[in-house]
Amino acid sequence: MKRIMHIVQSSGGVERYILMLIKNMDLSKYENILVCSYDYNKKNYNGLVMAFEHVDMHREINFLKDYYACIKIRKLIKKYSPDVVYMHSSKAGAIGRLANIGLDNMSLYNPHGWSFNMDCGNFKRYIYRWIEKILSNFCTKIIAISEFEMKSALANNICNFNKIKVIFNGVDIEEYYQKNQLYHITKKDLGIPEEAYIFGTVGRLTKQKSPDVFINFAALIKKEIPNAYFILVGNGDQQAEIEEMIKTKKIADSVLITGWVDEPMQYIQLFDQAFLLSRWEGFGLVLAEYMLGRKPLVATNVNAIPDLIEDGKNGVLVSPDDPYAVYIAAMKIYKDEMYRKQLVKNGLECVKSRFDIRRVVKETVELL
């Protein structure tokens, strides 16, 4: 039996990826250990991992905290002696690769979106590029979750072609159909009028996911569709700012912010239209979830998103930071039933053929 240690700091879509990956591995052949930040809840991994270890890891660079995290992770690697160390996200990738130097195992790194592609200023991008370039020497293989991620790595000289492999992200289609009948959250449960037409988005309330653009769009379309209602599924460091924006736009009685939820699909099933308005994106797992949930979607034409969405076929692509473009796209979907149904049909076919988690597991274990 091979022992795999997953090291991760980021939550959100990264956690959903790890949960799906572990759940769908053959646990008679692979033994999993999770080393994670305090954003992770142990109960979600009962019966899935042989060990669960919290480490104080944070997204922001803090040399003292990062040093102590590195020391603790190195001790955990020595304690459990994994055959494979699999690091997820940039911070865990940096700390994990340093902690693993000189130890006898196979090491995989999946950035889940390169840090140097973030909207973070030229100096930070330069530093992040050099960190990734140097640390690429301290892992066996880099896994990119989209073609864009691989091309970006090669264009920035992070590694050579032989070092990186594309394994497209995926969703658990089988589990969705098993759970679909159990999704019982209703409009009434949430205090939403039964006649409401719901525009929804799933994602952290952070600069990357552009909740501000979603609220500006909401204010525009509310004038055209009086029964419009808006759901933001997630939490984040911009929540207070977004709540203030909602009050300023005078749409507070038509907006719900759910906070963090374990099962986003319970809310997605209520959406009439779904949105991902990211300013940058390594993959956009929620797009596959939208398509699986049969929702017409609007997304920004940035980074890896065009790897998933073909404009006008299985979704609509718009420019980032443009609430009016979002409004135009949403109105077309709202008014044109045939167009809407075709987007949904094509989206469902796309997710079933390209983004099943079982393919992700198969391609991952082939590396081990």
> Number of helix segments?
14
Q: Shape, please?
A: globular
- If classified by CATH, what would the architecture of the largest domain be? 3-Layer(aba) Sandwich
Order of neighbouring strands in the sheet with most strands = 3-2-1-4-5-6-7
| C-alpha Rg (nearest Å) | 21 Å
Furnish the topology, listing elements before pairings.
Elements: E1 2-8, H1 13-23, E2 30-36, E3 51-54, H2 63-80, E4 84-88, H3 90-99, E5 106-110, H4 122-135, E6 141-144, H5 147-155, E7 164-166, H6 173-179, E8 197-202, H7 211-222, E9 228-233, H8 239-248, E10 255-259, H9 264-268, E11 273-276, H10 285-292, E12 297-300, H11 305-308, E13 316-318, H12 323-335, H13 337-354, H14 357-365
Parallel strand pairs: 1-2, 1-4, 2-3, 4-5, 5-6, 6-7, 8-9, 8-11, 9-10, 11-12, 12-13
How would you describe the overall organization of this protein?
It is a single chain. By secondary structure, the chain is α/β, with parallel strands linked by helices. The chain folds into 2 domains: 2-166, Rossmann fold; 175-354, Rossmann fold (3-Layer(aba) Sandwich), CATH 3.40.50. 40% of the residues lie in helices and 17% in strands. A 7-stranded parallel beta sheet has the order 3-2-1-4-5-6-7, sandwiched between helices. Strands 10-9-8-11-12-13 form a 6-stranded parallel beta sheet, sandwiched between helices. Helix 11 links the parallel strand 12 and strand 13 (316-318). Helix 2 packs across helix 3, helix 7 crosses helix 12 and helix 10 crosses helix 13 (337-354). It is globular. Residues 12-174 form the Glycosyltransferase subfamily 4-like N-terminal domain. GO terms for molecular function: glycosyltransferase activity. This is Alpha-D-kanosaminyltransferase. It holds the Pfam family Glycos_transf_1.
